[in-house]
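Task card 7
Instruction: Convert sequence to structure tokens.
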Amino acid sequence: MRKTLLSFATIIAVSATFSGCGSNTSTNKSELLSTTESNSKLTNGNAVANPACQPCQAQEMKDTKVSSISFTPLPLSQNDAQKKVMRVSQNLTVTYCDNTKQTFPLSYKVLAKMGDNIGSGTIGLMTDKNGDAILKKDGSQDISDGPDGNSLINVGGKHFLITHMEERPGELYKTELDNCANPIDTKPVDLSAIGGTIINCASTKTSYGSHLGGEEDYSLNSIFADKNSPFYADCALDGSGTDAAGKKNYFCSYVDGMAKYLHDANIDKENGYNGDSFSPYNYGYIVEVQPQADGSTKSAKHYVTGKYTPELATMMPDGKTVYMTDDGTAKGFWKFVSDKKITDFKANWEGTLYAAKVTQLSDKNGGKFSLCWIELGHGKDSDIKAMIESKMKLTDIFDIKKPDAAGACASGFKKVYEDSTFECLSLKDGKEKAAAFLETRKFAAYKGASIEFRKEEGITYDPDRNVLYLAMSEIKKSMEDNYKGQEPTNDIRLPKNHCGGVYEIALDNCYNATAMEAIVVGKPLKEGDKYADEWTCHPDGISNPDNITYIGHDTLLISEDTTKHVNNMSWAYNTKTKSMTRIASLPIGAEVTGVDKGVVGNKGLLFIDAQHPFKDNPKNLAGKKPNSALLENASKEQLKAFIGYIDGMPAKLFQ
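Output:
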């Protein structure tokens, strides 16, 4: 691998080109993100669902081998009208090895807005364990504005789109599409048998046709749940999301959210916040869902992948190795290796969990590291579930104290830094397995793993180079040199870059990660720079990368979750030429989510969601919000989050 800092003077001037004539890579491994505003119908500045499919006619690709693909770069928004709408690239050009070309007009089609009635259901409606609507204080239905991970799964001639709702409680919707990619029915996936789910973030698909999603459980850290912890939170438990003093508290709001889903009125804050059905240890895992041809859905939580703040997981081609990312400050990087190859849905995974240990080799341009792996433990889902059901709490596993005023721990305790917190821990005898799977991040830090990553987001596999790509939304805080002057290990010592970066991770023949290096980093603006009056990070480069997806043809899609750009954008990064092209610009205040590819009928689709449009207020370099009026004047229709896809791409690119 070699370091590359993108040239921001050339990024937007270059149309992305993806070469493949001389390689053995199949043309059909690829997908690409390119979209157009011109073919979308607009209402109040927002794209709306396209009318009935017009006999599913689509321009077909030639059978000749593809040499490269390219699409028109998308300019920055130039005025308020453009800032308020989904804008996408207009054309895809496929160049073949016989030097002929085809151009495919592209368009963005809204599949559904949250709250739309589709068949028997209402997409985005939050429901409890019985499938009944959860109501707000005013008695109205709770409609999510947080659609996130998407997985298009084709089974038995049917097409199902699994879509996350990033809420507390969480929700997964299953939407059936007809052969023209029109939604014909939607309903929430019944997850009551696994206690429901929470903060469902990004997702991937397995080779055997299931959906893997992460419970990005930021706030159910056991340090807040145990009365014997110095960090204990005393919650009101009245549904208000506040502590006993009436102050807003994220941990309390998570407990209240799941209590509302479970109808659990007996949560005992004197005993680890365990209730009749609720336990803080039941959340923060990888969730697997697989639609069946008969309309039913299989589901499971894979406790054996560890509890932390998982953004998502991705399974390697060996069907055994799975990598998981961990969102937030002072987080880890995780690997699970199954005892046996997983070839179909299994509710009870068994294998070994590992945590990454890095050795920094360079701090230039986002950094370069070697990687090794610390074994945490071996287990299976059913055993860990039994531990949770025994109503364990933190101090059954660790004794815990705060560091003293000098940052030191008492004798017999080890200092760790995890989840933005300095803690003094002492592992109790015989509790290694419980620590490995219920207190994964604490135990990894206790064993010397590198728990210093910051906002570790999307991860995706590139089979053409046998590498992973990993998005680090920000390079700051726990990734800086000895953050707060107290870091116990200080493995990562990088200059701060609040615009973030994307890393390439080298794998060996057994899919073991051995090294990581930044391949693209954002460019922070300085006072007096062009764009600094509206932007914080240079608009010709990435800002706070989040969802990333490798789609073949040397193409890595990088999508943003940022307030440092006026509009969140999606980019196509060429892993061979290192050039990057802007291909989508979302309505102001919306995060890019749900990127997935697939084929329905003879249509090639690239899914992309607009989460919470007109909500996140972008800041300029001075910290001001010059576009506030656009958010303040947004209509109810503009505030609706939506899911949709980029239409017009040939299906053969995705098959």
